[in-house]
Design goal:
heterodimer; A: mainly alpha; B: mainly alpha; two-stranded antiparallel sheet
Chain lengths: 135, 65
C-alpha cells in the first residue's frame, strides 16, 4: 500500500521530537534569564513550532489511513480527550479548593498525557481488530 | 457479518497484502474483515465486489440481529 510509509513517518516524527527537545532544553533556560519580555516570550514559545509540525504530521497520517485505522484513531482520540479532560477538571477543582497546590507548570503535562492515553487506547482498540501493527 | 473474502482470495492465490494493495487498504484491514472482526464500509464492500466481479450479497452475509 503506497499511501503509508512507516519508516519516513517515524523518521520525520523523530526529527521533530528531537527539535522540540533541543529547543526546550536550550530555549527555556535562555528565556528565564532574558530581561526582554518579547524575547522571553519568543524563546518560551519557539518549541511549539516542531510540536505543531508533529501535530500536522499526525493529522496527515490519519487522513492517509484507511477506514479501519481512522476508526481506531477516532476512538483513541475520543478516549484520550475524555480522560485528560476529566483529570484536568478534577485537578482544577482540587486546586480551587486548595486540597492540592498546583501552579501553571502543570499545564505542560496535558499534551504528554493526551499522547500517552491516545497511544495506549490505540493499542488496545487495535488489538480488538486483530492488531494493527505499529503504524 | 460473515464473508467469503478468504475463500475468494485463496482462489486467486493472493496474499492478504496483495488484496490490500488492490483495495487500497492495509493488510491488517483485510485480515480484520476476513476474521469477521470488522465490517467494511459500503464503498469498500463495493470495491471488493467489483474486484471479484461478484455482487455484494454473494460475498457478505448479514449476521443474526
Amino acid at each position: 500500500m503506497s499511501r503509508y510509509l512507516p519508516s519516513s513517518y517515524r523518521m520525520q516524527m523523530l526529527l521533530l521530537m528531537a527539535a522540540y527537545l533541543g529547543l526546550v532544553l536550550l530555549g527555556l533556560p535562555l528565556a528565564k534569564n532574558s530581561s526582554s519580555l518579547p524575547l522571553k516570550a519568543i524563546l518560551t514559545l519557539v518549541p511549539l513550532l516542531p510540536m505543531f509540525g508533529a501535530l500536522w504530521l499526525i493529522a496527515r497520517q490519519i487522513m492517509r489511513s484507511d477506514e479501519l485505522r481512522q476508526r481506531v484513531h477516532l476512538v483513541a482520540l475520543s478516549v484520550a480527550t475524555g480522560v485528560v479532560s476529566a483529570l484536568s477538571l478534577a485537578g482544577g477543582f482540587l486546586a480551587a479548593t486548595h486540597v492540592v497546590d498546583l501552579d501553571g507548570d502543570v499545564l505542560i503535562w496535558v499534551m504528554p498525557a493526551l499522547g500517552l492515553v491516545y497511544g495506549v487506547t490505540q493499542w488496545v482498540v487495535g488489538r480488538r481488530y486483530g492488531g494493527l501493527g505499529c503504524n | 457479518m460473515k464473508n467469503r473474502l478468504r475463500e475468494l482470495r485463496d482462489r486467486h492465490a493472493w496474499s492478504q497484502g496483495d488484496l490490500a494493495d488492490q483495495l487500497d487498504v492495509s493488510r491488517q484491514t483485510v485480515n480484520a474483515i476476513e476474521t469477521g472482526k470488522y465490517d467494511p464500509s459500503l464503498p469498500l464492500a463495493f470495491r471488493i465486489a467489483r474486484l471479484f466481479r461478484m455482487n455484494i450479497e454473494s460475498i457478505f452475509e448479514p449476521g443474526k440481529e
